[in-house]
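A reminder from the course coordinator: this example appears on the midterm review sheet, so study it carefully.

Given structure:
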């Protein structure tokens, strides 16, 4: 895979959760502009396979420029009065994100993905799955200042292209699948949406964002696109023995050590004790929100990670999608790497041809829209996969 070799100037605050930010965090009550539903946006199609899928049974022809298929997002199952609000809610999401239990987009509004992240944290720490008291208290202590001030770095000139085309035929002629705006760059950098940046900073500032401008952001460990070099990851003695479970019913991937303990086991004793106490599951080490492909393309079963690469080139092959048979190179398109690639900034291909875990150009669609193929994560979650799994890791899709 080609590598980008860029000389980058980084201007960043210290925004690690639990650390003091570069500037004093402040709260801003700003008007929010009307936001479209992520599923209703006109998004470029993302037929995901980066390698050949197995034969398909007369699959319908895929329109390469069609929008994703909207799906109804999973409804929260925890009562609103149980969940924190305000800064506590934001601290909770940041705390879970930094603990590798992804809550989805950080917005201070805990939804279904935050609920699942809370369950994962409780499972590891031995609390009842639906208990929110312990995790909220831990989050308050770890993230006392949930907002920080960040400076738009000069390197946006290398990663932002307002004229990036939307059609694959034109994207194939581009040098890089860049961000389309500084607002999109900063939103992904701080694991949130452009709408939430507007809520924090106001329409005028976000619509006119330029390098060296300061903005209020969630105080989360930033996703630094400039640190991605395009390397291919090799097998690792420890990580290659791990196991990942992709649950397509709840839209979550869970990653376990090689020999995890039982997932949730009630302690022996009284009925009350069994209902409120769990053993600590040290085997679970991470969980992230995902969106699977269309049901007809999901390959249930247990596979292994075959390859793992940053900044993948995505090969669009209409014949491959229609029939499962690869066409000649002259009939396909190569979409260049970048954060707005249909497969995002990372690809982990499985031993089942054509199936992989990867990033996305549209993090706001996780859990709200599905594409034609694989298993998508937000780029800030996808880039953490090679620190957790490697070629050889088993992946169960259920």
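Designed residues:
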């Amino acid at each position: 895979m080609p590598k980008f070799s860029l000389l980058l100037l980084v201007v960043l605050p210290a925004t690690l959760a639990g650390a003091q930010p570069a500037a004093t965090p402040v709260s801003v009550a700003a008007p929010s502009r009307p936001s479209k539903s992520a599923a209703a946006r006109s998004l470029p199609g993302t037929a995901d396979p980066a390698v050949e899928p197995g034969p398909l049974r007369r699959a319908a022809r895929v329109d390469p420029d069609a929008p994703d298929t909207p799906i109804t997002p999973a409804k929260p199952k925890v009562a609103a009065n149980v969940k924190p609000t305000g800064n506590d809610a934001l601290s909770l999401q940041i705390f879970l994100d930094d603990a590798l239990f992804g809550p989805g987009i950080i917005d201070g509004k805990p939804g279904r993905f935050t609920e699942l992240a809370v369950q994962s944290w409780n499972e590891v720490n031995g609390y009842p799955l639906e208990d929110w008291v312990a995790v909220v208290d831990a989050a308050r202590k770890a993230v006392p200042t949930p907002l920080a001030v960040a400076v738009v770095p000069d390197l946006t000139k290398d990663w932002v292209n307002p004229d990036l085309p939307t059609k694959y035929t034109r994207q194939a002629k581009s040098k890089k699948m860049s961000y389309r705006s500084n607002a999109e760059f900063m939103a992904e950098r701080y694991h949130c949406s452009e709408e939430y940046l507007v809520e924090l900073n106001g329409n005028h500032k976000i619509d006119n964002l330029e390098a060296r401008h300061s903005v209020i952001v969630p105080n989360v460990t930033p996703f630094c696109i400039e640190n991605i070099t395009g390397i291919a990851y090799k097998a690792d003695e420890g990580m290659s023995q791990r196991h990942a479970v992709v649950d397509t019913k709840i839209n979550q991937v869970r990653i376990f050590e090689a020999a995890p303990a039982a997932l949730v086991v009630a302690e022996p004793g009284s009925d009350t004790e069994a209902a409120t106490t769990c053993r600590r599951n040290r085997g679970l080490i991470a969980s992230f929100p995902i969106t699977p492909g269309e049901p007809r393309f999901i390959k249930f079963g247990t596979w292994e990670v075959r390859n793992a690469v940053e900044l993948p080139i995505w090969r669009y092959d209409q014949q491959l999608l229609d029939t499962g048979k690869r066409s000649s190179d002259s009939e396909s398109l190569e979409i260049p790497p970048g954060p707005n690639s249909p497969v995002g900034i990372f690809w982990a291909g499985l031993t089942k041809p054509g199936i992989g875990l990867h990033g996305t150009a549209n993090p706001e669609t996780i859990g709200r829209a599905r594409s034609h193929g694989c298993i998508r994560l937000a780029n800030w979650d996808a880039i953490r996969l090679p620190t957790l799994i490697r070629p050889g890791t088993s992946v169960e899709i259920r």
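The two ends are 31 Å apart (CA to CA). Residues 1-64, 261-277 have pLDDT under 50 and may be disordered.
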